[in-house]
Amino acid sequence: MTENSPLNPSANGAGDGAAQLSLQKVYIKDASFEVPGAPQIFQEQGQPQVQLNLSQQVGTLADNVYEVVLTVTVTCKLADKTAYLAEVQQAGVFGMQGFDAQNRDTVLATYCPNVLFPYARQIVSDLIQNGGFPPFLLQPINFESLYAEQMRRRAEGEQQLNA
Hints:
The protein has one domain (about 20-160): Bacterial Protein-export protein SecB, CATH 3.10.420.10.
């Protein structure tokens, strides 16, 4: 029996040169939630200051198989005191076949985090609400724009080194 997987593109009805991408697994690699000032922080008044940090890592698991880990960290402060800190590492295993190096890197840096972000957003929202705070919904992230900016900065850095 022929296995239908990204490592066997002919089983998917694609020709030998067709680029293939498949999501093999989505999982939480790590999640944490801290309320360092509880229960006193629940008595604090004021406008919360929320800071969002995103990062991602790509690891190679096998030929044409990659793990992408999207880390979302949300820190909320009230009057210079940390109300809560929520961090989620949402991961996925992606199979890729038939991509050149540049396109592979672009897909891993843009498409894959776009797939993982809704899962991370839901977990962050659940952690914060279950921690006793008002609901919090992360706004959509344009990973294509972030990647383009990263490539622009890298090109500028190389130009400065060569000057």
